[in-house]
Design brief:
The protein is α/β, with parallel strands linked by helices. It is built from eleven helices and seven strands. Strands 3-2-1-4-5-7-6 form a seven-stranded mixed beta sheet, with helices on both faces. Helix 1 crosses helix 2, helix 6 packs across helix 8 and helix 10 runs antiparallel to helix 11. The longest helix has 24 residues. 35% of the residues are buried.
């Protein structure tokens, strides 16, 4: 491929490595299309649909694609989520760089299209617990997860595939030993899985371990300040932060087993 070869950030590289080679990709919220260009340049995807709801970033994406000489392989579309995507046009949907609630809205808006994908490569920037719950309740399973730390921020990514076997909050696939090590019951364990990622915990991912330490220290500082305030409102928050610290400690137990 002609043109300057793209070098991705760690968070985008993590997404690229999750894409199944040979799949056509719909890059939703493509921004400047760095990921789209990389996927074609590296021969990971034969064709990419670079989609964004904003005209400015999409124009910049188009310029980047043209300068790379990849017009034949990458098509740009102005689209609110997957609105302008037809079923069967892509096997992989990539969605990243936005909050979990917005990402959930995008996937919910056209659930028939979402479920038709062979895989979803997702990187919510916030509300991870709620987002994992949404996927599980809608019948998606997560066969792969990863995490990176870059420029002072933690990024978590997951591959989701539609399995049609939605789980309730009370279900758990953990064996007795693991259940005993981190939780008093399956509902509590599922809550920890939703918050931190079942595969990241089971794999003792080093970035998750670092993230848990960060969360522990942050919550500890907040608790110290709240306890010093001695107000009714602060007392309510103290209970919330203590619950958070308890869950962090339970999750951290995976790394000590």
């Amino acid at each position: 491929m002609k043109g300057r070869q793209v070098v991705l950030s760690k968070r985008l590289q993590m997404l690229a490595e999750m894409v199944t080679r040979g799949n056509t990709v719909a890059d939703v919220g493509c921004d400047h299309a760095f990921l789209s260009v990389y996927l074609v340049q590296k021969g990971i995807s034969p064709h990419v649909l670079a989609m964004d709801v904003r005209k400015g970033p999409l124009a910049a994406a188009r310029e980047h694609i043209e300068s790379s000489g990849l017009n034949t392989y990458i098509e740009t579309r102005l689209s609110d989520g997957v609105e302008k995507l037809e079923i069967g046009e892509a096997e992989t949907l990539v969605c990243a760089g936005m909050g979990g609630r917005l990402m959930e809205r995008i996937l919910r808006a056209h659930m028939e299209k979402t479920r038709s994908m062979r895989e979803l490569i997702l990187q919510p920037q916030s509300e991870l617990k709620e987002f994992r719950m949404f996927l599980r309740r809608e019948g998606f399973r997560i066969p792969a997860e990863d995490a990176v730390y870059e420029e002072g921020k933690y990024y978590f990514a997951m591959k989701a595939v539609y399995a049609g076997d939605a789980q309730s909050d009370g279900q758990s696939r953990a064996d007795g030993k693991l259940r005993e090590s981190v939780s008093s019951g399956p509902t509590d364990l599922q809550s920890i899985y939703d918050e931190y990622g079942e595969l990241l915990l089971k794999g003792k991912h080093p970035v998750l371990r670092q993230y848990l330490q960060y969360r522990r220290e942050t919550a500890g500082r907040i608790l110290e300040k709240l306890e010093a305030e001695r107000t009714e409102r602060a007392a309510e928050r103290v209970s919330e932060v203590r619950r958070e610290l308890t869950e962090i400690e339970r999750a951290s137990g995976w790394f000590e087993a």
